[in-house]
Prior knowledge:
The protein has 411 residues and is mainly α. It is 80% helix and 0% strand.
Amino acid sequence: MKERWGNLSDAQKVYFGILALTALAQGLSGGVLSNYFKDAYQVTAYQRGLIEFPRELPGVLVIFFIASLSAFSDLRIAMVAQLLALVGIGVLGVATPPYAIMLIFIFVNSAGTHILMPVRDAIGMSLIEGNNYGKRMGQYKGTQTAFTMIAAIITFMGFRLGFFSFTTKVKWIFLVSAVIFFLGFLLYFVLERHLDEPIKSHKKINFVFRKEYKYYYILVVMWGVQKQIMLVYGPWVLIDLLQKKADTLAVLAILGALIGIFFIPALGRWIDRFGIKKLLYVDAFSFIGVYVVYGFLSAGFASGHYTAFGIPVMIAYVIFILDKMSNQMGMIRTIYLRSIVVDTADLVPTLSLGLSMDHIVSITCAIAGGIVWDRWGPQYIFFLAASLSLVNVFVASKVNMEELGSSEESA
């Protein structure tokens, strides 16, 4: 274990602490939002799709948010993001506001978590020494997965014991999440004191659109489709069609995270060993397989051919967990971008632009998905996503290994 992790600097130790706390906070809040919408506001599948507009809009606007903060270091931007996340979820913890007001605070919380995404990755990569980006990024993601599992265990115990509920005035799970976000905010000050100079991976945040990054842009757009289908409608199959509660989804999250603790660091090592091109193929085919199976299952559940118990439900659970593994493979895209980046100053702007692009697609897919579910049936959402995932196979075939190698050496 010591050989795998190597000697960590004090700054890296603090960063791992930040990753742990942030994953714990996001697991307690973001991991149960679908159940919150269902229990507290009794939303339909169509309404669930519409909610994704305010929840995902910050992902579209993230490039502008970060541009307005471009005078700050990456750490200071991350601090602002942590504060937004805790305020948004903290308010929802102390009250059940009217539906429209609730959407405002969902937006605030989401703004914080989305601003954090590109700068957190940039901070993490700036702390890596040598060329073992795959291994260290795998450790970062593995740490996040481990604490996501802890969040799922807390969620399961809290709802089973009656301590957590979405039908009471105070939503304790959200308040606990807000407190942990605040602790993560404090750790950024500690990290700042351990650095000789501020981390600022950008000179001025603006749109960076280079032809060299065209395949990265395609990958993030396709990720927008894939992410939204499985993050919104994957759980909705279990919640709406099978009437499963937060404790059931928490158990699945625990199992997925437990596997992920070992899978994600291994994935990082596989990237270093087998290369980005081969892993892009694995990523593409894993999504296709997940969507096809989930499509047939959801058709059976919706028609009543499959009951809410038995082997089909067990298969749905397995596919749900496998999808968690597929989602974690997003680190391949980040490392791919870092391997082809023309100028290191492009990293945060391009990650931010990619985030905006994937969220434009996400919002469209969420709303369209709700309409498709309501009018034609849930299975067609998943079959369409499987078909679109063939684009990922095309991109994997176009990745030039010689360009990757030369870019990595120059970087």
